[in-house]
Specification:
mainly beta; 6-stranded antiparallel sheet; 47% strand
Length: 128
């Protein structure tokens, strides 16, 4: 058991850009966290992420802007200062409006993503 706190300073290697967002990995098993993964998400105005499924519950804490989160055919708008809890195993999609949005995200370690109807899942590189 480690008795010391570990300070994590993100580097350029921890930043991963996708067509919809830029993720900056913070805490994760590869960065010394045994149980949790956390990262920062930045989405540009008008961005829409793909429909996907994560096998872990996620907590999104909006720090800037707003996002729309669609799960189970229902869309919620989340604004800076609000938090949305996205259940594990549900199809989800995130989109921004006319301004950039930023969030801090937390989930238990080792989460995997898949697309609806897909047979394979893959790890989230920013959360490994």
């Amino acid at each position: 058991m480690n008795l010391f706190a570990r300070v994590v300073t993100p580097s350029t290697e921890d930043v991963i850009a996708t067509p919809a967002a830029v993720m900056t990995g913070l805490a994760a098993p590869s960065r010394g966290s045994a149980e949790l993964s956390t990262w920062q998400v930045r989405m540009e105005p008008g961005s829409t992420g793909p429909e996907h499924v994560i096998d872990r519950e996620q907590v999104w804490m909006l720090t800037a802007g707003s996002i729309e989160v669609t799960t189970g055919g229902r869309t919620e708008t989340v604004t800076a200062g609000q938090t949305v809890v996205v259940p594990a195993g549900v199809v989800r999609q995130f989109r921004t409006g006319g301004e950039p949005a930023e969030a801090l995200v937390a989930m238990s370690a080792s989460g995997r993503a898949s697309v609806p109807g897909g047979r394979e899942s893959r790890p989230l590189p920013w959360a490994e």
